[in-house]
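Sample intake sheet
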Amino acid sequence: TVFRGFTEDANEFTMSKICKISNFISDLWREFCVVVGVINGKNRCMNIVVCVKQIPDPASPGALDATTHALKRDGKLILDESDAYGVEMALQLVATAGSGEVYVVSMAPNGETSGMRTALAMGAVKGLLVSDPALAGSDALTTAKILAAAVTKLGGADLIITGTESSDGYT
C-alpha cells in the first residue's frame, strides 16, 4: 500500500511500517555480522551505499518547463525525506555492526549538492554526485545503471539502500 496523502493516520502507519522494517533490518544485520565474524575470525568493516535523490524544496512553489513540461530543477534542491530515512538506517546499521562507512550517491542537474550535504552532515563519510545535462529526463532504468556505475566507482558496497520512489515524481 502506498500512501500519497499526508494524513495523520497515514503518517503514523508509514512511521510504524518504517520502524518495523528498521528493526527487521537491524536484526538481520546483527545476524550477518555474527556470521561474517565467525567466517573471518574477526570483525569486518562493512561499507553501505545509500542512493539518494535531491528534489526541489516542497515548500517552494514548483514550476514546469514550458518546452519539456517537466518539473524545473534549477533552484536549490533538498534531500528527499524518504532517502534521509535510508541514510539514518545505514548509520544505525554501521553503529550496530561496530565498524564501516556510509556513502551516498546521487544524480542531479547543475552540479547541485545541497541535498547531498545534508546526508554528509548526518554522518555519511563520502558522496558521489553524477551531473550531466545529457542525463536530464533519464528514465528509471538509465538512472539505475548510472547509480550502479557510481557505486562501482566508489569501490562497491556490502549493502546498498535505496528508496522505493521519490516524493517529487513518484519515480
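Comment: The first strand starts at residue 46 and ends at 51. Residues 1-11 have pLDDT under 50 and may be disordered.
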